[in-house]
Please model this.
Amino acid sequence: MPRFNFWTVVMILTWVMLFVLLFIPVGSVLVSSLYDQSGNPTIANYLKFLGEPRFHQAFINTLVVGFGGLIGALLLGSIMAFCVSRFVIGGGRFVSLLAILALVSPPFIGAYSWIVLFGAGGVVRGFLRDMGVNMPPIYGVGGILIVFSLKFYPYVYLMVSGALSNVNRSLEEAAEGLGLTPLQRTFKISFPMVFPALTAGGLLALIHAIADFGTPRLLGRGYNVLATEAFTLYSAEVGSNMSMATTISVVLILVSMVFVLLQRYMSRRNVYHGNMINKPVRIKLKGWRNVLAHVAVYFIGLSGAMPVIISVIYSFRKTSGPVFQSGFALQSYERILFNLGDVVRNSLTFSLTAVALIVIVGTVVGVLVARRTNFNTALLDGAFMVPYVMPGIVIGIAFIAAFNTGPIVLTGTATIIILSVFIRRLPYTVRTTASSLRQISPSMEEAAISLGYSPFQAFLRITVPLIVPGIIAGGMLSFVTAINELSSSLVLYVGSTMTMPVRIYLLILDGDFGTAAALSTVLLVLSGGAVYIAFRFMGRNEQALL
Amino acid sequence: MTSITLRSLRKEYNGQVAIPNLDLDIHDGEFFTLLGPSGCGKTTLLRMIAGFNSIEAGTISFDDVVINDRSPAARNIGMVFQSYALFPQMTAAKNVAFGLQTRNIERAESIRRVEAALESVHMAHLKDRLPGEMSGGQQQRVALARALVIQPAVLLMDEPLSNLDAKLRVEMRDTIREAQREAGITTVYVTHDQEEAMAVSDRIAVMSMGVVQQVGSPAEIYRNPANRFVAEFIGKTNLIVRDLHQRDGVTTLDLGEGVSVDVTSTIAPGVSGRVQVSVRPEAVRAGGSGLQAEVVEETFLGSHSQIRARLSTGETIEFLEFSRRASLWERGEKVVLQLDTEMLTYFDAETGASIMQGAKL
Model:
């Protein structure tokens, strides 16, 4: 039985891979948090976490930005979803595009663009001051929340608009027939049906908010969260404290885990109802209501995409050193070409290698999970949950903890960066492959077998061509995530393995925004191209970006 | 030409017995139908013949060669699925050609056979369409062509018409019958629709709970059902309970109200006491002499009406009447029901088994 052997080998290799890339790093984090600096077992780190006001504050701040991001994203996302799915909005596809732009741009770019506009020396703030209006600079928790709301609202928007446009109109009509007023209908019929989508989208925003490192780092100005504390403790040149950094990582994993489990629970409840024969129609609004709806949608959409627009514009501005001059030039791009070619090359090679690995391994394991259902595969499916709950900064610290010494030393190599991206994104491919396989009727392969093909030939000739477009699309979306990854790379990079996001982050810290903007624009073009290819392969499906 | 022989066949799912012990002989070139309600084991049996289900005990033979351990690919079967199972990325012609590709058939020959197969199901004009661009009926025609083109030893069909609407079902079953006759392939057909089974089959096996209740031609199982289950599942019938009386070697059935039937030569010897009488709707006629009844309801169906009447015993009798009268029956109207005693069948009141002469007791 050669087929049995093949899948057994895959199963064993998958477990080995998970063990090396996941369990050892996570275990190392846990172990490291239970030892003091001189190597004695202790729970002092956790006592310190509980005892020190600095860590209390970071914990509370993390929850504040998490729930603040959730509320902001819910507010913006549901307004936009409601308007777009229920009213006729001119340029609806353009609005969706704005939401996608916000989603695929790296968050720290958002943070910096808002500083450019509303920071201490911000353009808009300066302009307003000249007009006699004084507003506080955007730094601190307020700024973080604004950026998170505008960055993460697309999660809510995409989930809720999906749910809203699939609510069977007959249900609302039935309620109307039973004598409910429009307001009652909204709250008793439509709202309960989109509630799971609302919560699932909001929690997704929260999970990303508490894992985000770049935004609080650039905008916080002393407003520290767990992710920034972990990085500070790890990277401090004087008094670097690995065991405290890992302790905070463990706390961050636990917090993240709670919300990921909650999010998955809500997503499962987010099932669209029945055969959508009777889809809701969009109402054409008149007068001031129409104006209001358009203003709301475009205000949210353009604000969300503002960082992207700002980066693109600034990337073409004339500069003298790091200082902007009036007029436009290609100086920033020239600098990339002459000085930063290796960074672009690094980003491309790392991302493409990681994506190739993700696609190959993810597909094979996805087939395993979907087709060989037994206790082992169920356990495997569960193990693939773990990377979901690991914020990038924690993955970075975990890889350092695991591969700095011992049998496998990888620190400072390109391999460690590629593997960290690989393990984080692998579960998405495994799950999408498995679910698309489950949707293909088994009688299709049986038909091929009945026509004289072996089961393996049937799989290769019938099933594989059907799932390949989805796999390519998934690979493209993984590429977007891979090439924009900042937080784990920031922990793992050395001079020769610097990537574009890391370089952008450092350029922003150095105040060289022209080059940062140009590099961001390159990043954006690459991401946009990947999303375009993905949509070409699977149809325009914004839901896949979630 | 292939005959199929099933001997002492047993199927279990996780310790649950689906088919306890089954024997069947399917003849050369025959259109054989497995008929029964859902969950009776008919699809399970078909998939065992195809090789997609394991066999726990017993043997399946094609032409007296046991094929238990042959893979589905090696059994030379053509299969038509309920869900069509057309390959969505291939056109109609490519779907049909798919089975020929693995058989090393010359290109020109392959093209000729694909065209002939599509022609036989009247789909030649749509050969370049993708499955997504075809209706359900068209997809099922292509699926049939795909199964036939490889000239299989056995054609297996698993409820091929159940996803189609009523009118298309009638049209398609003629196509299927025609194509099967032309090719002369031994065919095993699974359905839960008794009318469909009657229309297409040479012989039918009626199944219930994994057990074959009766095998016979459509007329045989309709006119002489082996038990009450078959009588009720095939067509419509009225069941009433009556007593047998024996006197001087003559057995009579007392239908009540002075009407009795001499059943000495119809009922198996030695049977006595209470029996169940199956009265087909077409064995009942209003008028003449017979049993007193009262009309409960008439359902007008155009060419004929379906009338429900209550006997003085309280039992309900349904019968048919061609629409010749100007007016419909009134509720409560008195009617005399004459029964065609030649068409009655009898079952044991306890076991439900047939007690007709010649029936296996």
About this structure: The first strand of chain A starts at residue 317 and ends at 320. Chain A has two domains: 1-41+316-546, 43-99+150-214+223-307.
